[in-house]
């Protein structure tokens, strides 16, 4: 008689565990997008376990640097100060040392980041750290937290460890898919480059033919209108080919970034302009370890380049600031100066550089904000959400 209630409780517990894991497994199988995988898992775990918050650290694929890959409901003291989520901490150091390995070590620890805060902790002090591995390779750490939480039941510990295994497999699958997509994208770029070359070659051949015809007509003393007609056709063809080249090459090339990371390329840009005696440019960076899709990097580099060129050419500024902040959700780029300012607007036919910036930001699915007042400087702020690019 006494065994029945115990058996019933154990069965209920097993059913609960299977239900939770089934929900999470279904969510992980719906997508190969890494951002969606991490966000969905955070949402599922925090809701099913009735937790307050969670975040995921991942190791860069080609190094030992962590980056904050996803968050859910971070306490205000951390969400308002992204710099506090940069760098190492107790659980990451422990993980790298190999001491955070196995279910016995998926446990609640005092969060060294929250411990530094006087306010803005939302009552949090502890989090559970779940190590992520794929075939023995370190992937990262999955943290979840709740106020007043100081210990895990063996059942919850077992579930979280299994969740860590499921998430690790999903992360590895997403990265493999992304690498195969990159290979496909590279092949497509090479194909497009060949097509552009062929198109330009044909266009230039046509221009050459028109000009040679015009030259022959001149030598034969033909009517000026006939010569002019061939020259005009050559000009039209040249303009069309130039526009085609600009549109295609800007999308396919990101030469300034070759061999450098995006933050390094921006730092090099600021340093190079400073070396040439332009208004002093101060460069500030947050979240350098966070990977950014190459398309976003190339577009934002061009935005920074254009904005700084505008400052040099038109602002009469003494100082300028270039600020880059990268979080799991977005890339924020700000360029501001103390120059003469202007009346913002894209529809007046002026400010062609800003029109180009606006077009680039729009193509990246971002938001552009420009604040300027005559005599009071200019701020260009660009936000690019990463959810659609990861």
Task: Give a verbal description of the structure.
Strand 7 (319-326) and strand 8 (330-337) form a beta hairpin. Helix 1 (3-28) runs antiparallel to helix 2 (34-48) and helix 2 runs antiparallel to helix 6. This protein has helices at 3-28, 34-48, 76-79, 90-96, 112-115, 154-219, 224-252, 262-275, 294-315, 352-363; strands at residues 53-59, 66-72, 108-110, 126-134, 137-145, 280-286, 319-326, 330-337, 367-372, 378-385. It has three domains: 3-180, GAF domain (Beta-Lactamase, 2-Layer Sandwich); 185-252, Single alpha-helices involved in coiled-coils or other helix-helix interfaces, CATH 1.20.5; 256-385, 2-Layer Sandwich (Heat Shock Protein 90), CATH 3.30.565. It is of the alpha+beta class. Helix content is 51%, strand content 18%. The protein contains ten helices and ten strands. The chain starts with a helix and ends in a 5-residue tail after the last strand. The strands form two sheets. The chain has a five-stranded antiparallel β-sheet, sandwiched between helices.
Topology of helices and strands:
Elements lengths: L2 H26 L5 H15 L4 E7 L6 E7 L3 H4 L10 H7 L11 E3 L1 H4 L10 E9 L2 E9 L8 H66 L4 H29 L9 H14 L4 E7 L7 H22 L3 E8 L3 E8 L14 H12 L3 E6 L5 E8 L5
Parallel strand pairs: 6-7
Antiparallel strand pairs: 1-2, 1-5, 3-4, 4-5, 7-8, 8-10, 9-10
Looking at this protein, list some descriptive labels.
390 residues; alpha+beta; Beta-Lactamase; Single alpha-helices involved in coiled-coils or other helix-helix interfaces; Heat Shock Protein 90; 3 domains; 5-stranded mixed beta sheet; 10 helices; 10 strands; elongated
């Amino acid at each position: 008689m006494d065994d029945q209630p115990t058996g019933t409780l154990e069965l209920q517990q097993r059913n609960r565990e299977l239900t939770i894991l089934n929900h999470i497994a279904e969510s992980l199988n719906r997508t190969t997008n890494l951002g969606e995988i991490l966000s969905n898992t955070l949402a599922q775990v925090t809701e099913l376990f009735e937790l307050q918050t969670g975040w995921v650290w991942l190791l860069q694929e080609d190094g030992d640097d962590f980056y904050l890959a996803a968050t859910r409901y971070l306490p205000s003291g951390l969400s308002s100060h992204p710099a506090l989520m940069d760098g190492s901490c107790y659980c990451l150091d422990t993980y790298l040392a190999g001491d955070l390995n196995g279910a016995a070590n998926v446990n609640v620890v005092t969060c060294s980041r929250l411990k530094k805060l006087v306010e803005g902790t939302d009552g949090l002090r502890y989090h559970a750290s779940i190590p992520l591995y794929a075939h023995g390779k370190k992937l990262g750490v999955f943290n979840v937290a709740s106020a007043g939480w100081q210990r895990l039941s063996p059942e919850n510990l077992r579930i979280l460890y299994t969740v860590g295994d499921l998430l690790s497999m999903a992360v590895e699958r997403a990265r493999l898919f992304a690498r195969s997509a990159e290979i496909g994208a590279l092949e497509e770029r090479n194909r497009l480059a060949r097509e552009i070359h062929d198109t330009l070659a044909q266009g230039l051949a046509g221009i050459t033919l028109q000009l040679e015809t015009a030259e022959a007509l001149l030598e034969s003393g033909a009517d000026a209108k006939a010569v002019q007609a061939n020259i005009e056709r050559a000009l039209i063809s040249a303009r069309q080919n130039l526009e085609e080249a600009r549109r295609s090459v800007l999308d396919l090339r990101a030469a300034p970034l070759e061999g450098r990371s995006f933050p390094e390329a921006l730092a090099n840009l600021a340093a190079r302009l400073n070396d040439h005696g332009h208004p002093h440019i101060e460069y500030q960076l947050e979240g350098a370890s966070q990977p950014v899709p190459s398309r976003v990097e190339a577009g934002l580099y061009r935005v920074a380049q254009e904005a700084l060129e505008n400052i040099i050419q038109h602002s009469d500024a003494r100082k300028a600031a270039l600020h880059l902040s990268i979080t799991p959700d977005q890339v924020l780029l700000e360029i501001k100066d103390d120059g003469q300012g202007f009346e913002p607007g894209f529809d007046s036919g002026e400010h062609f550089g800003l029109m180009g910036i606006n077009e680039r930001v729009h193509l990246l699915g971002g938001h552009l904000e420009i604040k300027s007042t005559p005599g009071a400087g200019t701020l260009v702020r660009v936000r690019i959400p990463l959810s659609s690019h990861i």
